Every structure is written in structure tokens, then in C-alpha cells.
Amino acid sequence: SDAEITFEANPDSVSDKLLRRLRGEGFNRVSLGIQTDEDEILQKIGRPHNYAQAVTAFERIRRAGFDNLSVDLIYGLPSQSRNDWADTLSRAMALRPDHISCYGLKLEEGTPMYEYKGSPFLPDDDEQADMYLSAVKILRAYGYRQYEISNFAKKGRQSRHNRIYWQAEEYLGMGLGSHSYMNGERFHNIYDLQAYMEADGEVSLLKEDVEIITEGDAMGEFMFLGLRLLEGVTFERFRERFGQEMKNIYGEQIDSLKKDGLLQEDEIGIRLTARGVDISNFVFEKFLI
To answer: Is residue 69 over pLDDT 80?
Structure first.
């Protein structure tokens, strides 16, 4: 009865009619992909909206009765400076969203943005790190609590889906191409609209690229996904999930990372240190055995 049901929206696709329909169907949370307030940068990265459209979309969502609204932002964009990023954060916070996700730009081969790889117009790794740390500081000052490496929320507004995802629990995605993790399988829905409608909800006809997750895979994912949460992973949850002691499986990795100042441990579990957050991918790789 109190399920969190989120839909993601681009600013150019938000309409009052759509919002009324989704609100009436029970959706109660929106994630809006603003990305940046710089129109020139939005154009460079191929986004079909401008910032004015993003503000209008945000206001429409509020008027439609959604009181749980998240915005997505990206740092490390072409020609983006640290001051540009600070301005983006300030303008986003002026809208008073309940949740903010801040993601560093990653260039994936085969995407239009990949042409920027190696470009002097892209902030380097150190500049991206500075942008990230400034976001943590700025958002904290405005009352947004960081609960995961890239996610910040007002009190009581942490995303349940985010938490479920990072705790390697099951989730169901609905719609074209949406991803799910159910019954030890990771898969996505088909991308063809006509085929999707003809499947009429029959899951076996919707699934594509099914990946079977072994217990070893599940353990590794439990560790590196869970460590993205600032609260870390607990010995009790690992024991309940796998019937084994975490340190019997990963004791060597944990001790080594603690020695390097990247993990901290107490009687409850383990979590990243501040330095561990800075080089989290290095830490995560240690659990992929």
C-alpha cells in the first residue's frame, strides 16, 4: 500500500496530461533528467531539452501532486568548469527537489559522446574528483544527506529502488528495455513496442539477454554494490543471505583494504573510508573473484 513507484522523465517529454495519467495510476515519485543548466553543454551532449524546459517540467510535476521528486545531474561534461558545476547545483537546489543524483560523465564506446574521448575540453580525472567533493560539501550544507556515492536526499526521501539495487535485492522494471533482477536472473525487457504489446505481460516473451547469477557472482555483487552505500555492508545481512560468514570468504581482501586505509570495520560490518570513496572502483575490484 505504501510502495514507491517511480517513473523517469526527460524535461521535453513531460506534459500535464501524462502527469495526470501516471498520478492516477499510482505513480508517486519522479526522477527528472536535468543533467545541467548550461544550454550550450546540453546541446553538445545531444540532449533535446534546454534548462527552461527543465524548470517548466519540474513545476508541472509539482503541480500534478508529486511530492517526491528527484533530479539527475552530470559533472565532468565538455567545457564544464568547477564554477559551472557549482552554479548547476545552486540552481538545482533552488528548485527544492527531494533527492539529487550526481553522476560523473563516463564515455562508453559506441555512443555519440565517445567522440570526446581524449578531448582537452573534457575535465580530467582530478577535475572530476574536485567537482564530486565540492558537490558533497555543497549539498550537505543545504540539508541533503549523502547515503550512496552518487545520491543525496532530504530526510526520509532516500530512493527505495536505489537502496534495493545497491543491496543486491530483487527489483522489477516495467516498460520497453527496462531491467530486472528476479529469481537469480538479470534481464531486460524487449525494445520493440509492437512485440511488447503483443506479449500482453507474459514475462517469458518479454525477457532478453538473460544472465544467470551464480552464488559466487551474487556474493561479489553484494559486496561491491553494498559498499556504495555510506553505511556499508553488515555481517548479519551477508550471513542471512548466503549462510556463511563474510570474513571467511573475503577476510583477506578486507584486511588488506583496512591496512591501506580504504575500509573501516566495526562489530556491525564494513564501509568505505573517505579515501576509499575517492578510489572506490579500486576497492570494488577486490571483491570480483
So the answer is: yes
